[in-house]
């Protein structure tokens, strides 16, 4: 079944005759996928947003609900179907379908079921959208991304994972809260696994251009101690577990992070985002997908930036990579 709602059929026809419009397809109409569609529509990320899910009634309901609010959003077309054809000729495909993480369950525990699902859904998607940029969002995103590259044979710039874009946003939020500054003035990254072994890159973090490790403190709040930094890192790493325990899933922030990636791709922004990409001799780390600051634009995931690393950060990144390799090998990748 195929469900469609045009923001304006006449406008869509006129628009398509004069210039190429952008199309984003979101695979999976669960909590993350449907919220990502909502976020992309609200932000005007793409002219067409399509939802694909094997549950036809769920897709129909989501399309109707989103469509009823079109007049309050930037003009867009909303599509939905349980037929992969709805994804045809997409510019970007966000894969959110996967096993649901349960309270207390690590992302790595989800690997086997999600990889098996990816084996099923990716080949048909490639048939209808061979030139799309594929962004894996489903967890464990690093292992799934690595497996997806092997399954599809796509180059690393065309298929990558959402990585620690969300985790880095969490880090910036907590830092802003603790330091008493606007979150927009905090620049800091989480790197490595999108999960328990991820690490904060304190050496490259800045607050309004001031290196975090040199931050003097303002408004009676002193510089961060090592103990405070460790507590902040732990809060970031465990925050998803707290959210899942309380409401069953994380969806708002990850959807906003996903829409940010979509915009970087479609608008060719060359924005630096810590997405999960296949690395080859990144500080001697190779043949694994993990998150590092990467230039994301019209070419997909392009240059991987070699940010300053302390010895401890290098060791942490290498340890995270080794953990991910071991999990991937368990499943034959």
TrEMBL record:
<feature type="binding site">
    <location>
        <position position="162"/>
    </location>
    <ligand>
        <name>NAD(+)</name>
    </ligand>
</feature>
<dbReference type="Pfam" id="PF00056">
    <property type="entry name" value="Ldh_1_N"/>
</dbReference>
<feature type="binding site">
    <location>
        <position position="107"/>
    </location>
    <ligand>
        <name>substrate</name>
    </ligand>
</feature>
<comment type="pathway">
    <text>Fermentation; pyruvate fermentation to lactate; (S)-lactate from pyruvate: step 1/1.</text>
</comment>
<dbReference type="InterPro" id="IPR036291">
    <property type="entry name" value="NAD(P)-bd_dom_sf"/>
</dbReference>
<feature type="binding site">
    <location>
        <begin position="167"/>
        <end position="170"/>
    </location>
    <ligand>
        <name>substrate</name>
    </ligand>
</feature>
<dbReference type="InterPro" id="IPR011304">
    <property type="entry name" value="L-lactate_DH"/>
</dbReference>
<feature type="binding site">
    <location>
        <position position="58"/>
    </location>
    <ligand>
        <name>NAD(+)</name>
    </ligand>
</feature>
<feature type="active site" description="Proton acceptor">
    <location>
        <position position="194"/>
    </location>
</feature>
<keyword id="KW-0520">NAD</keyword>
<dbReference type="InterPro" id="IPR015955">
    <property type="entry name" value="Lactate_DH/Glyco_Ohase_4_C"/>
</dbReference>
<feature type="binding site">
    <location>
        <begin position="137"/>
        <end position="139"/>
    </location>
    <ligand>
        <name>NAD(+)</name>
    </ligand>
</feature>
<dbReference type="InterPro" id="IPR022383">
    <property type="entry name" value="Lactate/malate_DH_C"/>
</dbReference>
<dbReference type="InterPro" id="IPR018177">
    <property type="entry name" value="L-lactate_DH_AS"/>
</dbReference>
<comment type="subunit">
    <text>Homotetramer.</text>
</comment>
<keyword id="KW-0963">Cytoplasm</keyword>
<feature type="binding site">
    <location>
        <position position="32"/>
    </location>
    <ligand>
        <name>NAD(+)</name>
    </ligand>
</feature>
<dbReference type="Pfam" id="PF02866">
    <property type="entry name" value="Ldh_1_C"/>
</dbReference>
<feature type="binding site">
    <location>
        <position position="172"/>
    </location>
    <ligand>
        <name>beta-D-fructose 1,6-bisphosphate</name>
    </ligand>
</feature>
<feature type="domain" description="Lactate/malate dehydrogenase C-terminal">
    <location>
        <begin position="164"/>
        <end position="327"/>
    </location>
</feature>
<comment type="function">
    <text>Catalyzes the conversion of lactate to pyruvate.</text>
</comment>
<feature type="binding site">
    <location>
        <position position="187"/>
    </location>
    <ligand>
        <name>beta-D-fructose 1,6-bisphosphate</name>
    </ligand>
</feature>
<keyword id="KW-0597">Phosphoprotein</keyword>
<comment type="similarity">
    <text>Belongs to the LDH/MDH superfamily. LDH family.</text>
</comment>
<protein>
    <recommendedName>
        <fullName>L-lactate dehydrogenase</fullName>
        <ecNumber>1.1.1.27</ecNumber>
    </recommendedName>
</protein>
<dbReference type="GO" id="GO:0004459">
    <property type="term" value="F:L-lactate dehydrogenase (NAD+) activity"/>
</dbReference>
<feature type="binding site">
    <location>
        <begin position="139"/>
        <end position="142"/>
    </location>
    <ligand>
        <name>substrate</name>
    </ligand>
</feature>
<dbReference type="InterPro" id="IPR001557">
    <property type="entry name" value="L-lactate/malate_DH"/>
</dbReference>
<keyword id="KW-0560">Oxidoreductase</keyword>
<keyword id="KW-0021">Allosteric enzyme</keyword>
<feature type="binding site">
    <location>
        <position position="53"/>
    </location>
    <ligand>
        <name>NAD(+)</name>
    </ligand>
</feature>
<dbReference type="InterPro" id="IPR001236">
    <property type="entry name" value="Lactate/malate_DH_N"/>
</dbReference>
<feature type="binding site">
    <location>
        <position position="250"/>
    </location>
    <ligand>
        <name>substrate</name>
    </ligand>
</feature>
<feature type="binding site">
    <location>
        <position position="101"/>
    </location>
    <ligand>
        <name>substrate</name>
    </ligand>
</feature>
<feature type="binding site">
    <location>
        <begin position="98"/>
        <end position="99"/>
    </location>
    <ligand>
        <name>NAD(+)</name>
    </ligand>
</feature>
<feature type="domain" description="Lactate/malate dehydrogenase N-terminal">
    <location>
        <begin position="23"/>
        <end position="161"/>
    </location>
</feature>
<feature type="binding site">
    <location>
        <position position="120"/>
    </location>
    <ligand>
        <name>NAD(+)</name>
    </ligand>
</feature>
<feature type="modified residue" description="Phosphotyrosine">
    <location>
        <position position="241"/>
    </location>
</feature>
């Amino acid at each position: 079944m195929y469900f469609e709602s045009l923001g304006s059929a006449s406008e869509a026809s006129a628009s398509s005759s004069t210039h190429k419009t952008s199309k984003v397809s979101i695979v999976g109409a669960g909590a993350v996928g449907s919220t990502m569609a909502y976020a992309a529509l609200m932000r005007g990320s793409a002219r067409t947003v399509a939802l694909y899910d094997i549950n036809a009634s769920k897709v129909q309901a989501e399309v109707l609900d989103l469509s009823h609010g079109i007049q309050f959003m930037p003009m867009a077309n909303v599509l939905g179907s349980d037929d992969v054809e709805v994804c045809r000729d997409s510019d970007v495909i966000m894969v959110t379908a996967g096993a649901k993480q349960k309270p207390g369950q690590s992302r790595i525990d989800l690997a086997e079921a999600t990889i098996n699902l990816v084996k099923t859904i990716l080949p048909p998607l490639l048939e209808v959208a061979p030139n799309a940029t594929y962004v894996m969002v489903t967890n464990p995103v690093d292992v799934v991304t690595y497996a997806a590259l092997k399954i599809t044979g796509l180059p690393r710039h065309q298929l990558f994972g959402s990585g620690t874009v969300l985790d880095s946003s969490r880090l910036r939020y907590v830092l802003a809260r603790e330091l008493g500054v606007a979150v927009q003035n905090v620049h800091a990254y989480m790197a490595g696994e999108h999960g328990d072994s991820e690490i904060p890159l304190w050496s490259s973090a800045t607050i309004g251009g001031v290196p975090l490790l040199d931050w003097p403190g303002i408004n009676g709040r002193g510089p961060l101690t090592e103990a405070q930094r460790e507590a902040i890192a732990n809060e970031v790493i465990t925050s998803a577990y707290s959210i899942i325990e309380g409401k069953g899933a994380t969806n708002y922030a990850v959807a906003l992070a996903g829409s940010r990636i979509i915009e970087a791709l479609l608008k060719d922004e060359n924005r630096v985002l810590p997405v999960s990409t296949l690395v080859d001799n990144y500080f001697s780390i190779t043949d694994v997908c993990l998150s590092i600051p990467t230039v994301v634009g019209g070419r997909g995931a392009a240059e991987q930036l070699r940010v300053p690393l302390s010895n401890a950060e290098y060791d942490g990144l290498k340890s995270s990579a080794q953990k991910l390799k071991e999990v991937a090998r368990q499943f034959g990748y």
